Input
Amino acid sequence: MKKRWLAGLLVVILIVLGVVGYQNRQVTKADMSITAVGSTALQPLVEAAGEDYSGTQLGSFINVQGGGSGTGLSQVQEGAVEIGNSDVYAEEQKGINAAKLVDHKVAVVGITPIVNKENGIKNLTTKQLIAIFTGKVTNWRQVGGHNQKIVIINRAQGSGTRATFEKWALNGHQSEPAQEQDSSGMVRQIVGTTPGAISYVGFSYVNKTVQAVNINNVAPTDKNVETNKWPVWSYEHMYTQKNANQLTRRFIKYVQSSKIQHTLVRQLGYISMDQMDVTRTVQGHVRKVEGSHE
Amino acid sequence: MNKQLAEQLRKRSKAAWLERIGKIVSFSALALITLTVFAIIIFVASKGLATFFDNHVNFWNFLTGKNWNPTITDKSGQPEVGALPMITGSFVVTLLSALLATPFAIGTAIFMTEISPRRGARILQPVTELLVGIPSVVYGFIGLTVVVPVIRTIFGGSGFGILAGTFVLFVMILPTVTSMSVDALKTVPRYYREAALALGATRWQTIYKVILRAATPGLLTAIVFGMARAFGEALAVQMVIGNAALMPSSLVSPSSTLTSVLTTGIGNTVMGSLDNNALWSLALVLLVMSLIFNLIVRLIGRKGAMHK
Output
């Protein structure tokens, strides 16, 4: 008797689910739903903006996933997703034909070296940074810190943060093989607890457990990024195919709109595009923005 | 009347129909699983072998090279895809953790089956089962916040390395090896024990000279299973081993395993590029190794099957 009762309950549940699913079917219709995949650094912004957008445009749905910049770029190139989020220019990623994709820059992220608080280091010159990451300097004493062995912690190979750091802070030098972690949160946790550790994270990850380091006496602040006095920053890109559908175009426009740029972008620790006084091309040419606010 | 009966007999009965449906269902389930397994093997193999056939990486260099840096080409124009550091790392943590876990697991199993079966069943069984159920990220996090700092203060260095990985894996494979050892000890026939005791053997002599000897194939299977689990574990190891693609110089120097390099790297590479193919080659090595572990288990099982 009990079994029959259970079976009945199951059937009722199935019917209810079926009806609910049927009524909600429009939400997931092909052109009403798009998927953005890629960079975990950009993910929080796209997620928050996607929720906002779905709130205002009923029936449209933005599906956001991580996976890494490489995944994002290759997926959008294959047409598997509508938007590929990336920390690096498509031109810089191996195996990507950048000519087939359209670049939409949506924010800027500053990247700063961080060290363990007990290293006694607050400032490093570019030369010292390069010496540390290429293994020529192995003790903090050699660059004015305490007598403590240097422990380098890298992001994974191919990470956008690492690429940016090596290009702009190490002047293109490759870091020697060292520990690798695949997320900024993990890097911060390890640097905060390991004596002698040094690594690099986006500005928004810096908190009181770690010490951010000035480079050549320039402090890692948003203001210095905006004027390019602090050169270690990168654009956050949302790549699409050339013939993107309407919802994709509208959503990217929404992310680039001054509403999102002035609220979400800043709240989440990014630097908005219109704050920047300079632009930088993929080759690294820096130009002042005409009529910038200074 | 006769005709009706004949008709009824010639027609398929309800039971026969059910039998046939059951057969179809179980057969298609089997076919689906077999198909999935083969699809996975073929997919990983085709991706993993592309490194050698499409990108023309020397297979020998891949296995014995010590530099892992797929984005860079070395002096002779070959990409740096030496997997030896990862292969070494995987094997060393696996062997060490199995070596560490085996005495504890067999000791626990003996206690649970021979010495105090009732208490064993009431306390130890649930505890080992609980250990199985803890997600690996929890083990990894405990390793990161407890094991790594302890190793750092005792041995110096950063604390990340093979030793930390060994400790975490030890706890993770312990329940697997224990519960399989218990099963192995339970299959030793009761009359072995009775005969040993009748000959005047003490309990320890019975355990040591009879039961453990008789259960050896089963115990070996348990250990190999534990090793297979350790070899394939990714997340927890990745959190404590340091992920440096370097040959381990000591047990406390940062190193890496096949799985840790795979999980950190796969999201940052593009399908079809050399960097990506090289990672698939690592996955292929992993897959082949787990197949070998399975083969070993089967071999032990066949050779050591108990003759009654």
Q: What stands out?
A: Chain B touches chain A at residues 67-72, 144, 149, 152, 158-160, 238-239, 242-246, 254, 256, 263-276 (CB under 8 Å). Residues 81-307 of chain B form a domain with the MetI-like fold fold (CATH 1.10.3720.10). Strands of chain B lie at 68-73, 79-81. Residues 37 and 292 of chain B are 15 Å apart (CA to CA).
